[in-house]
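Quiz preparation item.
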């Protein structure tokens, strides 16, 4: 984070850099590759990381890697995800508005959790979440209420990599 007068965070400088980046992204965007009738969803979440540096997390159906060569709206959106790591567990919270609980699917393989939601075989949301620690899939608790998915995973010191589907309560 940039520092201004008296060592205080320079929020306006950070804001202006973020504004310049958003203007550049809109200028470089290839609107011709969008699918007709598909919404374009892009957003970001800014928070302060453990070292005091800003962490910018993107979500939506426009991939960051695709923006360099012109982006197109994908069929599935990336939900906004928040990761909370504590000493004994990891909590993953994802916003999945407009989806019923029966249409949410979770899978953990190694240190990656896949969140997929949608009905009729059509994924409305899809996100691969890299977990900050090894977790035990047995005893995982997942709940879904009012469009918010919450998954609590217990940490382990060592685990054998295997794919596991989780049941949502």
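Solution:
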């Amino acid at each position: 984070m940039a520092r201004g007068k008296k060592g205080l965070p320079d929020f306006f400088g950070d804001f202006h850099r973020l504004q310049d980046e958003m203007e550049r992204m809109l200028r470089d965007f290839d609107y011709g590759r969008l699918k007709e009738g598909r919404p374009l969803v892009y957003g970001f979440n800014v928070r302060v990381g453990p070292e005091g540096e800003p962490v910018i997390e993107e979500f939506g159906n426009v991939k960051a890697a695709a923006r360099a060569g012109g982006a197109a709206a994908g069929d599935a959106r990336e939900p906004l995800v928040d990761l909370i790591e504590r000493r004994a567990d990891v909590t993953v919270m994802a916003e999945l508005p407009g989806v019923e609980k029966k249409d949410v699917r979770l899978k953990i393989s190694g240190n990656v959790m896949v969140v997929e939601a949608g009905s009729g075989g059509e994924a409305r949301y899809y996100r691969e979440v890299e977990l900050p620690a090894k977790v035990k899939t047995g005893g995982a608790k997942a709940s879904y209420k009012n469009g918010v998915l919450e998954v609590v995973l217990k940490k382990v010191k060592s685990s054998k990599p295997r794919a596991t589907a989780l049941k949502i309560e």
